[in-house]
Design brief:
94 residues; alpha+beta
Length: 94
Amino acid sequence: NNLQVLDEFIAKNSKYLSYVKPKSGTTAFVKVSSNGKFTTLDMCLELVNKYKILLVPGETFGHPDFIRIGYANNIVDLTKSLEAVQLYLNDKFK
């Protein structure tokens, strides 16, 4: 169910987010199209400081403009985390 929730979130935000849907595992590597408004490092720092949501910026792996999202935690935590990401995106693209 968690992967389905993540997949629906990515589809809902397809203007800004895209990925190759994982076939297995517990994490997804998501492309963020920020249009130069922010870096994924800035995004991850703001999310952890403001919402206590931990994502890994692609800069960590030498791939700016990506974030790594773990989706194997409980569904309530995943949903709340994605809601925070949604608030962040809404704020940056208003």
